[in-house]
Structures are given as structure tokens and as C-alpha cells.
Amino acid sequence: MRIALAQIDMRLGDIEGICARIEDQARLAASQGASLICTPVPLFGGMMPGALLEAKNYEHALLSSLTGLAARLDALSIQAVIPAPIAIDHTPLFEVFLLKEGRVVPLRSLFAARRAGSAEDLWLPPVFDIEGLRVAVTFDAVNDLKILPPGCDLVLFLQASSFDVGDESTSCVASVADGHFAPLAKEKSVWLACMAPIGGYDEAAFTGGSFFMDDAGRVVAAAPCFSEALLVQDIERGMVLPALEAHELPRYQREEWLWEALRLHLADSVHALGSTSVVVALTGDLPSSLTALLAVDALGPRNVTGLFVERSQVLTPAQESAEHERSDRVRELASNLGIRLIERAPADAARLLDRDAPGLGLALARERIEGLYLEDVAIELGAVAVSSITKTDAALAAPLAAAGYLGAVAPFGDVYLTALEFLARARSRAGSAIPARLITLNAVEDRMASILAASIAGAPESPVWRERMARLLAPLEAAQIDGVLEAHVDHGLSQDEIPLAATAPDAVALLLMIVRAGEVWRRRLPLVPMVSSRSFPERRWPAQLAWSDTGRGGEDPLTCAGLVSAESERVLELGEEHGRRVRGEIVGLIAGMLGVPVDDMDEDEVESELLRRMREAFEADEGGQNPPFAGGRPHGFTFFSQN
Hints:
By secondary structure, the chain is α/β, with parallel strands linked by helices.
């Protein structure tokens, strides 16, 4: 039997257009003898459909289009597996629709209903048969293969995790050479078909790389990474088919995959915003230069415009020389990239605001004026403005970054500043137009110094406080600062868990405080593709939060579960103590009645003495004529009354 994987990139939510594209792919697959075609997960609703599922007619529109598509595919004698998000009891769920014989079958919901079990059955992999092949469908190959029903021939893995630069498995076929996926297929002795999406969907980015793997863990067919493809493969159990050699498989290269993921996301974002061109504010530094290069790779030089705004407040010869050097770098970059460059004269913020010193401060006023220039050019050209801010900017200089107009998309908004140097070096191997002097550690350190200066400028109006901030942050290298941010933001480490806190605790605490204080400003930043283990949009905290995670200071962690356990133990101890106290009181009462001296005896001795006297009392009448309880009253115990 032949199965086709349609690695296609479409405009998110264009239901009719997507169905038409699937039909075209199905027609091609059927011409190659395929009986089943599969499509990527995010086509219809993206990875975070949110309020889309609450729209009254979304589900109707989806199912109506799929029903029409099912009828057309039936005429082609081909079935389809199409994932799409729906809501079940107000809970988002990626349903698996099987289009067969002109019908639309929701596999997950149907199998859960047949099992008549709990709601958890919705999350089990559904299984269906096609031409004698038993196919299980999963969104989580690692965990679902452990609970795979017996008798399955093929596992259809629909990748739902977007690209994460720190998780090699999200690159799909490029991770196989490093040991991903193959052990799963061999352990369960099943074929594995990985349907990998490609392109950008809201904040998510995908790099493609679909593949077929036989039950021996060998890749027998693979689609290219970073481009659309239709992959068709015969599934033959028990037969050894030709496979790709290890050297033929793509290998995951961190910088290359990151660059291509951002390129794909930028292209899709610009098209989704209804444009084919962008404008980038060029400032002569590495981030803005790399952003322009990325835009050229994504859209072509004809569709990229650079904007250069000269700086005012150039008062000294040194400042004038630095400004000339900056303008030369920008013009050189534009010439190398072959893009149009628009230059604007500097604006005097004080004159525009009609005051000697702007209340905003010169840096803030300049950012807003340059943002106005950027917005004006974007509107004039009908282009999308692209921001060059990095994750470091968002972490430490969010107030200044959000002060002016930045544009609609920030492709490096989830990439730390220091990573750009390595990204630029990797890209330069394929030919780079960025001046070599910008791809250096010094250039990164200079940009980091600008970010820290902006962060300090946005601090409360206290010269003493700003001076202390500068003194604490000055000794730190750019890599150390980004290391602290990555540990805290991406990996959720508290202050005392960050390695640098051992030698610079005050500086680390200050960085974490700055991150917290910028929360409300980060919400004003442009769309950011999520390519790390945790982006700022995913990490959103309350905007008015005044608490920072400064660690425990060496104390053992306190948890609610620990309090419950301690309280339960306390209740048990109180119960035992109460029992002992009541028992002691009863023993003491009886001892007093029998005249047993308890002051010089412990509890065990008192009990022993009581037992001895009671035995003696019951054995007093050796002849048995006067038993201890004759007449309903014990003899020998004068304190017992008739009652």
C-alpha cells in the first residue's frame, strides 16, 4: 500500500483554499498510486486556536468544507487523514478526521465513544484499517508508542510541536542521525510515518523534514527540509526496502535550522499581513543588519527597503566621527544587499516638543521620532515594518523598545543577542553582505552596552540608584548576561540556582528585577516567532507583579503538599497523645479507688499492680461459695455500688 505525506504551507485558516490545495495534492498522490494522503497539523487552526474554537460557525465551516472534499477524494479513490482543532466540552482538541467513501469520520471522538470510558480516552491514539494495513495516529510518538495497541503496522506521527532550537527532535528527519525516532520504531517493530509541517503559523515555526521509517528503524524516504514536498512511499511489512544511508540524511545544525525557521516564519507573516515587502530600520549594528539580510533571504532584495535616520545631538568630534562611521556601515550594507535605502534627516526632539529638554528624555524621544519615521515609510510603501529587537532587548530594555513604533514582526525577538554572532557567522559561510567588523564579539559587546544604557535610563529618577545599577552591571560580559537571562526565562531557574549568583549575586538579582519590571512593556512588542524552550509570550506574568524569584536562601522548599503531610502527622500524633492521656486518667482513677500508691510507680507498674489486686480479689474465695460477682455485685471492692 502507498501513503502520501503532503508537506504543504498554506495561509492559516483559509479553509476553502486549504481544501482546494489538499485536493490538488491528493490528485498528484493518486496518480502515483497512493491510497491515503496525510496533511500537517496547523493548517486549519494553527497551534493555538484560542477563541477561534468559540466562533459559532467555525466547526460548521470546517466540516462542511471537509465533507465536500471527502466527496471529491472519493472520486479519486483516495482517502485522507486531516488533523484540525475542535472544541469538545469547551476543551481544545486536535481531532483526526478520516475522509473515506465520501464521509468525514472524527476518529478520536468516535473511538472514545466506542470505548465508553473516561474523557482520557480522547487522548489515546485512534486506530483504523486501510487495505489490510492497521494504522495508529498519534501527536506524541514518544509516549503513545508505549501504549500502542497490539497488531499495528504503521504509526502515523502528526508533529504538533513547533521548532525549538534547543530540541533537536523538532527538526524531524534531521534528528534521526543523532538517534531520534529509530529506537521507537525498532522497539515496537512498526513502521513510522512522520508528517512534519512547514512554515510559520502565528508564533509557531516549522522546518519540514517529513519521513518514512521502516520497522528496523531505517529511513526509507524523506522530504526536504525548509521547502514544500509531496512524499509517497510503499509500506510493506516484512520486506527489506532500500534505505537512505547515514551520510545521506540531513544533519541538524543549530544555526542553520534557526535561520531557516525564522526565514520561513518571516515570509509567511508578511504574506499573512497582506503584503509582499518590508521596511527595516538600519542603525549600523549587528541586529538590524542581520534582520535586513534575513528579510532579503525571505522575500528577495526587491521587496526590502532600508530606512536610515541620522542622529541629532552630535556635538563633539568623536561623536561626529562615530556618526559618519555608522552611516557608512548602513550604506555599505544596503549596497551589498542590493536593497533600496531611504535616508531621513535627524529631528530635534526639543524643538518638536517646544521645550529645552523633553520630559520623555532624549533617548525615549528619539526612539519615538524614529518610530514615526518607520511607520510613515511603511504606510507610504504599503510594506510591513520589521523590528530588529532581540530577546535581550525584550528582557532588559522593554520600556525603551516599546516607546516607539517597531513594526509588526520581530524575527529575532526570541533569540538572545549573543546568539546573533554565531548565527551571522553560519550565514556568512553561504555568502554574507554584512560588514565583517559587525560579526565580532566587540560589536556584540557594544550593542549590549547600549541595551544596558537603555535599561538604566528607564530606571526610576534617582541618580544614586542609576549609578549603582551601572556599577553592578558594568563588570558583566555579554555572554554572562544572556546566560543569566536564558537560565531564568527559558529554564525557569531562580536566583540561587543560576551559576553566576555565586560570584555576583547582586548583579543577578538586578537583572531578574529588570526582567520583572518590563512585563507590561513587553506586551506592546511586535509578533515574535517562538523558537526557544520558553518565549516571553509563553512566560507571561501578571503585569502588576511586584515579586521576583530570588530563591530560598538555602532553606528547604516549602510546598502545599508538605503542609498537608505535616498537618496529617500532627493530627495523628494528637490522637495518640489524647488516647494515652485518657488511658492514664482511667488507670489513675481505678488505682485511687483500689488504694494503689501511684506516686512512686510508673505507668506499667501501676497497671501490673492493678491486675495483681484484681486477680487476688477474684481468687479470694477458694471454695467458690462466694464468687466475686455473686448477687450482681463484686465482692472485695467496697467502692462498687449496687448501681
